[in-house]
Structures are given as C-alpha cells and as structure tokens.
Amino acid sequence: MNSKPSYSIIDIPEWKKLKKHAGIINRRENHLKYLVSEKGRMENFSLKGAGIFYDYSRQRVNAGTMKLLFELAEKRWIKKQFKSMTCGETVNNTENRAALHTASRSFSTDPVFVNGKDIMPEMFSVRKKIKEFTSKIHSGEIRGSTGKAFEHMVVIGIGGSYLGPEFAAAALKHLAIRKMQIHFLSNVDIHNFGEIAASIDPESTIWIVISKSYTTSETTANTNQAYEFMRQKGLDPAKHFATVTSKGSPGDDPSNPVVASFHMFDFIGGRYSVTSAVGGVPLALYLGYDVFERFLKGAEEMDIHAKEAPPGENLPLVASLISVWNNNFLHYPAQAIIPYASPLSRLAPHIQQLNMESNGKSVTNDGEALGVPAGTIIFGEPGANAQHSFFQLAHQGRPFPIDFIGVLNPCYGQYKSISKGVTNHQELWANLIAQPAALASGKDDTDGAKHFPGNRPSSTILLDDLSPENIGRLLSFYEAKTVYEAFIWGINPFDQFGVELGKKLASGIRSKMADKNKNPEYSFEDADPITGFYLETLYSGSKNL
Amino acid sequence: MNSKPSYSIIDIPEWKKLKKHAGIINRRENHLKYLVSEKGRMENFSLKGAGIFYDYSRQRVNAGTMKLLFELAEKRWIKKQFKSMTCGETVNNTENRAALHTASRSFSTDPVFVNGKDIMPEMFSVRKKIKEFTSKIHSGEIRGSTGKAFEHMVVIGIGGSYLGPEFAAAALKHLAIRKMQIHFLSNVDIHNFGEIAASIDPESTIWIVISKSYTTSETTANTNQAYEFMRQKGLDPAKHFATVTSKGSPGDDPSNPVVASFHMFDFIGGRYSVTSAVGGVPLALYLGYDVFERFLKGAEEMDIHAKEAPPGENLPLVASLISVWNNNFLHYPAQAIIPYASPLSRLAPHIQQLNMESNGKSVTNDGEALGVPAGTIIFGEPGANAQHSFFQLAHQGRPFPIDFIGVLNPCYGQYKSISKGVTNHQELWANLIAQPAALASGKDDTDGAKHFPGNRPSSTILLDDLSPENIGRLLSFYEAKTVYEAFIWGINPFDQFGVELGKKLASGIRSKMADKNKNPEYSFEDADPITGFYLETLYSGSKNL
C-alpha cells in the first residue's frame, strides 16, 4: 500500500503542533461563549454539500485549529486513501481485501477493478435481481406455499446484517408499502424469536436470511428455529425463505432450495453493507424498489462529494477532523448522536456499530501500537427525549461532544394543533436551536447547583426532509466520516479481529453444553471455576440463585 | 441534614488511600487474568440477595480494594443516608423535598412522615384507585364515547414519565393482556404523534397524560394534538383521557373533565417514579393490576435488602462502590449495560436517564465543587447483538466496564430447535459466559491486530426469570445503586438543575416563533446570528440548505 503514510502519527510535526495548540484552545479566553460570538462565526464554520448542511460553529475550534487540522489531513494523504478505497485497492490490508461499499450504490458506468476484474456488472446485476424479485413479490407472482401473498417479512441477521437495514427501514417507514410488515430477528435470544413468531401470519411470511458466511452462530440458530416453525405449520420452507449470502456459501446451495438467493461480496464489510443486497432486499420489499434506488442515489451523491470536494468544503472530511480533534487533543472519550426526528431513532445504534467496530482499534495498519486512543464511545437517543434523560450530565457533569440532527420539513403536515403559540415541529426546533447554544455558552451562577460551565462542543446537521435521498446522504456522510478518521490515524477500519476471542471462547463453551445435552452425566469440572459455576447454574435451574 | 458528611470527599484519608491503592491495582501483576484465577475468587466476589445474583469477580478489585471501599462507605454514612431517605427526611436539600420512591411500593403498615403527615394512606389509596380503574376498563364498565371498550392506550409523557414505564412494559410484554396495546407518545416531534395516530383506532383509545406539573411543553403540545385529533373524529375527550399529575395541577381540574385522574407527589422524582401512579396506571392497564402489584413487591424486597443488608452483603451498595472505584480511581468515563434478554432492551435507556440525570453533577450538597467527576456515561444494547456491534472497541479499543445481565429461565419454552448441539437459549448463554472471560483475560498475540490486552472489568447479574417480581428487583437494584453512588460523593441525586438553561433558552426561541406565527413581518434580527440563522432556515423552507 503506497497510498498510506508509514510513520506513527504521534511523531509527526502536525500532530505535535496540534497538541500545543490544544493548550491555547483550553485557555479561558477561548471558551466557546467567546468563539461563538465572533463575527462571521456561522459562515466560517459551516458547510453545505450533497444536500446536507453541517454547522461546526459550536465546536471548540478557531481558524488556527482548522488550518492545523487540514495540514494533518494533507500529511496523512487521507483524500488519496479515500480514492484508493473507491478504486478497489486492497485498503483492508489485514484481510487482503478491497472495501467497496461505494460501488454498491454507484450508478456510474466507469469500471471498478478488483484483482483485474470489473465488479460493476455484478453490482448492477444484483440490483436488477432485487428489482425483479420485489416486483414479483409485490404483484403476488411469488407467493407462499399455500398460495397466500407475502405480507410479513422477517429479516434474520445480526450486526452488520441488521443495524443498517433497521435504521433505514425506521427512517423511511413513512414510505412503507402498506401491506408489508417488517420484523428483525437478530438476537439469538429466544424472546426475540418468540415475539416475532407470535406476531406474524406464517402463511404470508417470507424470511430473509442475511449472512455472508452463512455460518454465523446466532443467524444459523434463528434460521433453524424458523425452518422448524414453518415445517410444524405444514409450510414448505423452500417457498418461504430467501437468502443474502456469499456465492457458494451453505445459503447459496441448490440442494437447499430457497425462493431466491442474492449475493454479497467479501469487499463489502457488514457494517458498510446497507446499500448492498443486505439492505437492498429487505428495504426494496418494505418500501418498493424505487425508494431503495433513491436511497442509493443519495448515498452516491455524498460519496462523490466525499471523494471530490476540496478538504475545506468536504463535510465528512471536516467532521472526521473535528472528531479526531475532540478525541485526541481535547480528550473527550465519547460522542452522542441526537436526532431531533423520531424516525431516526435507530441512527445512533447503527453509527455506534459503524464507528466503534471500524475504529475501536489500538494498532496501525502496520500492526504497531497507535499510541493514542482511536475510536470513541458513540451513544444517543432522539431529542427532545434525550434532554429529559441524560442531558443533565451533558450540561453540568462530564462533557461530551454531540451531533445534533434536525429535519426541516417533517411528514404528517396534517397535524397543526398549536401550543404556546407554536406547532409541535416548531417546539421541537426551539429545543434543537436552544440546546447547542446552552451547551456552548453556559451561564454563571453563584449557586453551584445552578451554574452552567458551558464550553460543551456540538455540531448541527440539517436535512431538508426524510426523503430516501437524504437518508442515503446521511448514511454515506457517517460512513465517509468513519473511514476518514481511520485514514488520519492510519488504522484499518474494515477488519474486526476484536470480536474473535469472544467467539472462540463461546464456541468452547457451546461444545461443553452440546456434550452435556448428549450426556447428562457430563461434568463441567474441567472448565475454569467461574465458567463452571455459570454452566452449572444454567443446567441446575435456579437453585444456585 | 445532619446525616450527611460535610467535608469534601477528596480530602478524607479513605479517599487518599484508595488513590494510592489504585496504583497497586494498575500494576501488571494485578491484571484481571491473575485476579480471576485466584482460589475462591467467585465465592469471595459475588453476592446473592433479594432474588438477584451479583458477580463482581471480573471487576478489578481485590480483598484490599473492597476493604478500603467499605471504609469509604462507612465514613460517608451511606447506609444512614439511605435510611434517612426511606424515612422521609429532606434528602433532596436543594428543592427542600423528601425522596420517597420506596414508599410508592411499600406494603408495610409502618407510617412514613413527610412534614409531620403520614403519607402511606395516600400511597395505598392511589394503588386502590388504580386497581379499581383497571378493573373497570378491563371489564368494559368504562368505555369510550361511542361505547367501544378500550383496546389502545397511548401514554403521553417524557423523561421520567416515559422511560421507566416503557422499560417495564417491554420487559413484561409476555404477560400483557392480549386485547390492550400500549403506545408511548413522548417526543414532541410530530413523527411520533403521526405514527401513533396511524396505528390506533381512536374510538377504542384511552390517552394517559403523565406530567407532574402538567405544564411540560412537550407533553402539553402532544396532549393538545391528541385532543384536537379526537375532536376531529367526533369523539368526546372527557371520555378518552386520564391524567397522572399533581393534586391541583391543570390536569387535575374539574372544569376540564377526564375519565380519571391519579396523583403524583413532589417527593417522588420523575426518574424514580415507575412504581408510583406514573408506571402504575399504564402498567396495570397493560398487564393487569396483579402483575403491577407483583412488580411492586419485587421492588420492595430489594429496597428492604438495600436498607437492611450489611454493607458486605448488600448488592446495590457493593455495586455503587464498584461504580465509584471504576469512575474515580480507575478513570473509566463510561459504563455499558448489556442484558442478554431482548425484553430488557429498554433497560439501558432507562438507567441512562436514572443514573446520568441523578449523578451528572459537579457540586456537593453544599454547593461546593466536588473535585472529581460524578456520574458516568451509560449506554447499552442487548447481547448478543452488542457483540456484533460495538464490542470491537470494548475488546481492543478504549475500555469501559460492563454490566452483563442474564436470565436463567426464558419464556417461549416451546421453541426447542437445536443448532450446533445447543438451544437458542444455551447459545445465548455461551456468549454471556464467554464475553466477561474474554474481556478479563485477553489473549497475547505477536500480531498486534490479533492481540487482546484484557483487563477489561465487568459484573454479571443473574435473574431467575422475567417475572414481575424480578423486574421490580432489578429496577430497585439500579435505583439503590444510583443513590448509594450519590451518597458516597455527597451530591444530591434528586434534583436536575442542569436541564433548566436549555429549557429557558428554548422558551425564548419559542416566543420568537410565536410572534412570527402571528406576524409574518416579524424579524429575527435581535437574535444572536446563529440562532437567527436557524430561525430563518425553519421559516424559509429549504432555501438555506
């Protein structure tokens, strides 16, 4: 990989300059209450691009900070790395793979080569297949084994095969095709299965199994549970299951027939796969293929912006610099995402996965210790709800940066009741406008309990409305911000070796359980005492409690 | 308040000893992989009480740590403070109020005096009223204005009037009375209202408005929206609304008739109010009064344990010490709550509010600077889902302590399909057992990307099942843990002045909007430029984007 810098980030002069500069920003005269009142603050510290407005005027930066951050970005070749990614280079070096989520929503006829082969024809053919399949399901040409049209879809998948599609489905629920209900069966917890089983009509249910390897334990367990459930209802699973999986996986095996099978590729990681067939099959069935395509076009627009726009005008690039600044120089360990729009309630859990799994790393691309923390704890609930929940801590306790997200034109314009002189939407916006201001400026009070220290940073992101294009743009914005952060640190945002140890230990424990299930005399005495205690407790009913 | 220590915590010898001791625990030889393999670790670092099992063997503590922490607890008179709280003393000193959530689930005939008056008769009478009301709704004696029995309930409330009831309703959904659906209208966002309006049958809908003051802007706006909606459907609001509010509030005004009105009291704060009428009315309607009463009895049992059990055997007290240890001595800024049970999916958002709003403070009871951070960032999603989302960062990035929660006996025993030799529930437990072990012990690897540093602390909490008693116990455990933390720090966990500044600014902005709504010529030019920009943008449609 010649497009990545090979020296440690903490040794470069740009990093050292930023460290020194943080000392200046931490001075009392650079409290946010002074920064925000500078002339032209809003104009100088906000951006518009690809249909999204990004205001970082309430971040703890000044012109000098941004200059140094842009120098860092240049030194780390981050735009070059982004281009390498979109061109199909092997940016996922530890797994020797490309990272081409951008191709999954590209409508360009330019080829993208992976190992010498243009992958775009395959991208288009998957989309075409989704379109045709959706049309046949919606028209009733494809039906269940008793002839009923499908009205329930259960999406079986976990992690990257769940959180992204769930976020997009919730955000675009206002466009859902009325006769199709969507359910997500992610957790192996039997309560998840039980609740869904109780709320569907099996005859009109199609199960979409999403798993790249088709060997993920949780997904396999749920798929088996669902097969058994359908068989017990006298229904033919071959007519009720579709799969999204790698070519040639056990889920793409003609000896195990399904309604349809759609391909995923090793160059699109789970948490980046919403715009591939992973999101495509459930979203097109739930919303219609045209809505899914509009969602892709929005994401593509932001991809092009992220790749082409100069650093100073580039929304996700600037957002990534702010993120690294807050993380490594101002030392905030966490960041909240607070959308002032209930349909975006699953944005924070999705970005939590996207960002924390991508950048929760301690080593560089070369396997060397990074030396500073990468990644941050991401959490969030919708505003104004969050104000009545954890904002006490935000205002007067441990500070953390916040992304506020506003939607200019909501759905449900028919509800016009006025309270205290304003509509519900205006009330919501009064709060969206007030919170960043209160956090930034604070308010002195001689009574300690009523003193607001302020100097709490935030950004505000605006969308025009909850159109599919805007949801695609927002998704792509956070994806590009995440990879730009990684490119600054010089880490690989596409692997996730950190999840392997737990899987391995779980596999050993599962084996012991399987032995015990076969032979009730099997003893757990070779397990370590703590593991042994929990295994005994599980098998003994409640007598250990 | 003579039951509170009056000196700053950082100056006392017990605090200084703990600081010194943290240096020892941070040594390599006290890595968790060594601590967990000590003989008798599990027996010595776990507790059973009030039906809950609490294992802190994977916390970064040894016998010396616990000894010092118990000395701190004693020095801070925390059990005495807890007793003062349950006895009705004015523990909420900044607001000059008692804090008596424990009374709301007490079945004892002992009096509890507030300002010389025994409040228990009022507690019992509210419960009796809930029981009778529930019975009449369920029997169809109380019906909507067109004579239809109620089958939908919309709970209007935000913050403490929402998150607790939502958590308990989700956890106990398996016991729901089939014909009653519950909806939560919390956010003032019109999408929240619009989605609910589209999914109810107005004629069979009862709206429960929960607001102590009955003046909360979001709740008022939603209530007005709902009144208007019902009137437009030709339905009489007086037959479709019930209120839970303070005596004499605008929601308890005979000139504004409602189906029923239930009282809340100033000595029970919103985030502690699940077991009062705030949770009582919706939960009894959704689950039946008997289930609600069992929920109260579980909470009461844990209250008694929290009050009576000696420090070394006291689950919430020990948990609070661990929490302060992790926060102030090991310097973890965040904590995750990961329930391995889908029905507990709303536990983390509730505890996020409970803990962050209670303890996100920087000043002591005396209004002095505390000097160390109180409160912590709480977040979480159910396991095993979280493993496939943000656990990469937990294992290899920025560490944070975790509460793992397991349920021994799940519902839905009828689904018995076996995968890889185990049931779904066993698969879930294999993960529940594996994760704390992997986080604690880690695994060395010469490949930096595959190296697991370990030494990541966690606790494991087990419930026998999802009975109402156990959900009550779990709720009370976290409430008691939260107030015990505050009692150690010497802060007031019952006020929330930190939310006031944002409300005040929002009110000013709302006024400007109201003026603009009345007079389209009204100009926002007297607002600060950033506020002005957002106001202009809201009124200009999308031309600013």
CATH topology of the largest domain in chain A: Rossmann fold
Rg calc of chain A:
25 Å
CATH homologous superfamily name of the largest domain in chain A?
Glucose-6-phosphate isomerase like protein, domain 1
CATH architecture descriptor text of the largest domain in chain A: 3-Layer(aba) Sandwich
Number of strands of chain A: 13
Report on this model:
2 copies of one chain form a homodimer. In chain A, helix 6 (120-139) runs parallel beside helix 10. In chain A, strand 5 (152-156), helix 7 (163-171) and strand 6 (181-185) form a beta-alpha-beta unit. The first copy, chain A, is globular, with a radius of gyration of 25 Å. Chain A folds into 3 domains: 9-90 and 309-441 and 451-495, Rossmann fold, CATH 3.40.50; 102-294, Rossmann fold (3-Layer(aba) Sandwich); 500-539. In chain A, 42% of the residues lie in helices and 12% in strands. With 545 residues, chain A is of the alpha/beta class. The interface between A and B is large, with 165 and 165 residues.
